[in-house]
UniProtKB/TrEMBL annotation:
CDD domains: PAS, REC. The keyword Transit peptide does not apply. Pfam families: HATPase_c, HisKA_2, PAS_9, Response_reg. It is an enzyme of class 2 (transferase). The modification 4-aspartylphosphate is found at residue 66. Transmembrane segments: none annotated. Keywords: ATP-binding, Kinase, Nucleotide-binding, Phosphoprotein, Transferase. SMART domains: PAS, REC. It comes from Leptospira neocaledonica. Its EC number is 2.7.13.3. NCBIfam families: sensory_box. It catalyses: ATP + protein L-histidine = ADP + protein N-phospho-L-histidine. This is histidine kinase. Residues 12-131 form the Response regulatory domain.
Length: 475
């Protein structure tokens, strides 16, 4: 006794059979095999079957077809149904035991060929069930094949139309396996020429011919490297190479994505050269400005030597020191590696050296400079230098008139975007400062104007011992 098969879902079977006894027998067999899982539709002719399939083709899981029908004979009806509805599996159930017909039917896409009177319910149901499963599997395979083909087409388009050269080559022998059209354009070789070359043939110099000397590859993505390649004409090409090493069809291959850096490098070199030219020009400008200011300072010095009025001589000396403080900024910039900033320590040292020399100050008045490694931009250094010049000049002229020894000091620091500067001496102070401030002397006016230029907070302490100027501004 045959085992009963229980379906997971109801099967819709179209029986194309003009013999009512055979048609009833098929129904009995299928009900016996799976009483609740089969639903049958009957058609006595191929024409009727085609009409049913047009209306309900999506619901039909399998067709049970007799080859001898009123409107068809042999494989004619089979071919008509198969052509119109190729996705529906067909099991042929014929009274003719003809091996050639059976073979032709199977080769044409029939799922099975059964001989009437030589099968039972189990065999019939199993044949139909397997036909449905095979058709489902075939449909899935066709769908997968279509998707694979579409993906291959998509990736081929991406590969071919990538804006950068791409080369696929064999890891072991370096033979080029594939390339895109941009590779042909950049290197000047045609496709056939490149497919007969090794990847290392594209390199220039000692690296060509031995990949392992110029590129250490490991599986997956590798770090981009830059090497010099050659075009067909021998023109050097600076190429950045990003490599991906992986397995393809049992072989180790490398996908090299290349970026032509030649023009970028040329532009960079031109930009660097242009920058060097501008730096040289700017240094020359600083040098000439410094020379002109020093000439002016020298002229004022000569004029001071010939002046007979002490007041005039003093004013000329003061103006000379102010001009020197400005020329010193340009001199420091001319000698500095940076044309944007100057070192505060060196600048202040030279500024005070000049003042001590101009006013003939001896070692009895010492100098203490504590500014660390601070640097100042040009727009900050010039007003700071002139302020220090004015403060130091006043200290030299007035702070030590009653005592012969002392110390002038400069302290500076920065933090949290704020620059702090303290300049002063340990002299006698300025006891009559309110009267002096009311007169608005040139030196004091300059200090206030320059502090406003810096948007600085200015605090002046004149009580003995000494005078102290504190300046604070955003750095």
């Amino acid at each position: 006794m045959n085992a009963r098969v229980v379906s997971v879902r109801v099967k819709q079977i179209l029986v194309v059979e003009d013999n009512e006894d055979d048609s009833r027998l098929f129904e009995i067999f299928l009900k016996e095999a799976d009483p609740s899982g089969v639903r049958l539709k009957h058609s006595p002719t191929v024409a009727d079957a085609l009409e049913i399939l047009k209306d309900q083709g999506e619901e039909i899981d399998c067709i049970l077809l007799d080859l001898t029908l009123p409107d068809s004979f042999g494989l004619d009806g089979f071919e008509m149904i198969k052509k119109g509805f190729p996705k529906i599996p067909i099991v042929i159930c014929s009274g003719t035991q003809d091996e050639s017909v059976a073979m032709e039917a199977l080769q044409s896409g029939g799922q099975d060929y059964l001989i009437k009177g030589k099968f039972d319910s189990h065999l019939l149901f199993r044949s139909i069930l397997y036909a449905i499963e095979r058709q489902d599997m075939l449909s899935k395979l066709e769908e997968q094949a279509f998707l694979i083909k579409e993906n291959e087409k998509r990736y081929r388009l991406i590969f071919e139309h990538n804006p950068h050269p791409i080369v696929l080559y064999n890891y072991d022998c370096e033979g080029i396996l594939d390339l895109n059209q941009e590779t042909e354009r950049i290197y000047g070789f045609d496709r056939e020429e490149l497919l007969h070359m090794k990847f290392s043939d594209l390199f220039i110099g000692a690296f060509s011919g031995d990949r392992r000397q110029y590129m250490a590859l490991h599986n997956g993505k590798n770090i981009p490297e830059t090497h010099v390649h050659r075009s067909k004409e021998g023109t050097p090409l600076l190429m950045e190479i990003t490599s991906y090493k992986f397995q393809l069809e049992g072989k180790e291959v490398v996908l090299a994505i290349l970026v032509d850096m030649t023009k970028w490098k040329q532009s960079e070199d031109n930009l660097i050269q242009s920058l060097r030219d501008k730096e040289a020009l700017l240094q020359e400008i600083h040098h000439r400005v410094k020379n002109n200011l020093q000439i002016m300072a020298s002229l004022l010095n000569l004029q001071a030597n010939y002046a007979k009025n002490k007041e005039v001589t003093r004013e000329l000396r003061d103006t000379e020191s102010r001009i020197y403080s400005m020329s010193l900024v340009h001199n420091e910039l001319y000698n500095s590696k940076s044309l944007a900033e100057i070192g505060l320590g060196s600048y202040v040292e030279k500024l005070l050296d000049n003042l001590w020399n101009v006013y003939g100050v001896g070692p009895e008045i010492g100098r203490m400079i504590d500014v660390g490694n601070l640097s100042l931009a040009v727009e900050k250094a010039l007003p700071i230098g002139m302020m220090i010049n004015e403060i130091a000049t006043n200290s030299i002229k007035y702070a030590y008139s009653e005592k012969k020894k002392g110390q002038f000091y400069i302290k500076a620091k920065s933090g949290n975007g704020i620059f702090y500067l303290e300049v002063g001496d340990d002299g006698k102070g300025i006891p009559d400062y309110p009267q002096i401030e009311a007169k608005e002397t040139l030196g004091l006016q300059l200090i206030r104007i320059l502090s406003k230029q810096l948007k600085a907070k200015l605090d002046i302490n004149t009580s003995a011992p000494g005078t102290r100027f504190q300046i604070e501004f955003e750095y």
